[in-house]
Sequence to fold (451 residues):
Amino acid sequence: MFVRVVAPKSQYVKVVYPSGITSKLFVNRGATGATGAQGPIGNTGNTGPTGPQGPQGPQGTTGATGATGATGATGAQGIGYTGVTSVSTITIGSGLKTFTLVSSYAGAFVTGMRIRAIHSDTPTYYLEGPANYVGGGTLIITVDKFNGSGSHNAWTFVVAGEVGQTGATGATGATGATGATGATGVVAATAPITYDSGTQTVAIDLTNIAQRNTANTFTGLQSIAPSSTGTTALQVNSLSGMSVNPLRLMDGSGTPVQRFSVSEFGTTLIGSNVALAGRLGVHTGTAATIGAVIRGAAAQSADLLQVQDSAAGILFRITSAGRPQVNARMGIAPSGGTSNFGATLTVADVTGGANDIQQWQNSSGTVLARVLVDGQWVSNAINTSNNYVRLLEANSGGTLQLSRMTAAAGNPGANIGRLYMRDGTTAGTLKLVVRAGAAGAETTILDNIPQ
Fold:
């Protein structure tokens, strides 16, 4: 039997029996005895859990800098923006501009980038804007900024900076002194320009235009459009008694090239220094200039030109095919007056033409006579003015009418004969003779023909 004795520091001792019965024993504690020899150290127990980390200590001093390492290899160079060119012919102005790139090389340019195309020969001329498309050898710029004018075909390209925001408007400067008042101009009875406003806006800038100013100019292309087809677009009124032209068009040297007179049925003069008496005068100015051109439309059917009488009757016309038609007798006057009979009418055939050179027709269009392309004359009859020689076509009898010759005809030449009438052997008669060859004598065919 084992008895466990628990000895607290008190004078009682608790005794625990195996059966669970406990009892107390009174123990008289004596003096503490001497400490015995230390027993052997037991085995090390398991490591307990790590305790919480304490606060970080102060940072130590920085160590010395190490030696610089070796330089690495240089990377490949980028393609950049140089060497991008185009020879496309482009007109300077705003809007979409398409450039075909030389050798299809676009460099580092990409769509969306702001690009400036510079004229290679005149660097102050340029087109600038965002790139609408870059690729396939094509560069398209939506131009919103440009300088210069004209069409050019040599371009280089650079990157352009974005346009900054408009700054605040500065303070208005002091008003300058008022200039001297100019001379008062002549005021017309009505406004010099009248128009009907409509959907179109009349854009005329009169800011710098004053009356009696010889340097009057418009600032650019102006347009005047009426509000409907029944209204007048532009009206210029002359003063009563006005002797000069109310409207003139001048060339760059100040010479009038077209003028309008002051009368109701005014004269229109076209050309340099025109001084003609007709209602419409055209002066060519140079010997090599065409005086007037009427050009028909595609599939023209109406006449190109008409001359009419007071009742709108057509006196002369040039058809759509270019054929002149005269509805009355056409006369050809001599060039040197009434005593000059040198007036001529020349009709030339087109080289290789197959039509008649000239035709005479009646009112129904029936051909009465014509001249063939080889010069032959074809007609129903040929008469002299006194009918001494008259040739008729076969269906009218086929007659040949000859008048009497008072002298023998000359020799006609080799292989040619001449037939003519002479006085017969018997007085009051005729004889029919022929002369042939280069030296032939008259040969009588029929003599003593009664008449």
Remarks:
- Residues 247-282 form one domain.
- Confidence is low (pLDDT under 50) at residues 186-203, 205-214.
